[in-house]
Write a structure and sequence with these properties.
heterodimer, A: mainly alpha, 0% strand, B: mainly alpha, 5 helices
Chain lengths: 117, 132
Amino acid sequence: MRLLKLTAIGVAAGAFSGLFGVGGGTVIVPLLILWFAYGEREATGTSLAAIMIIGAFGAFGQALHENVDYLDGVLIGIPAIGGIVAGTALQQRLPERSISLLFAALLVVVAIRMMLG
Amino acid sequence: MSVILVIILGFCGGVVGGLLGVGGGIIFVPALVILLGDSQLEAESTSLLAIVPVAIAGVIRQRRYGNVRMRDGIMIGLLSIPGVAIGVLVSNAVPQRAVEVGFAGLLLVVAAQLVIRAMRAPREGEPEPADA
């Protein structure tokens, strides 16, 4: 059952990533919380571990099709490394419940953007 | 000017990633399209590349805080590979618009469940229920 659920999360995250070019954390984090009773911080940390793999495979596949702009990737990715170090540090000081509520807000924003097309 | 904005948005994407456990692609893709004039496909591909070092840095930090269940994370990552193939197949078989609206609806349902669960959670200061 556990393996089945992990498979469902992996496939859903992969499909989301393949369709919309993101890492899949939008799918992974809430499902770990709702299906596996993960704490919020644990869900986000574990999600990042999955995203490294999903991102690496996705970027590799797209690089073969020469769709990757490496300079732009560096330009946005390097400052983001500083950002995630700051973000994780900040997260440790937030109550877990507020992480869930922030995440729900993120999902609503993403949903609205997708509906607008 | 737009280069400075991209750097700022990159940093913001990282902060969102750290707070919420996402890669930051939600911010990277529109930033690349709007500010650097990448096509949607180019932006999505470039975003995936940028996500990798960001996620690695995030995992290193979160491991130190004891928030990573590495086995589950790696399992999900590996199991997502067939998911990507399915996603690509579906996106070619079904109108993109239908996929977007369907996924958007799904996200709203998930958001509602998160809010309901958070509201039921114990108040600050009380012990959290043990994780399964």
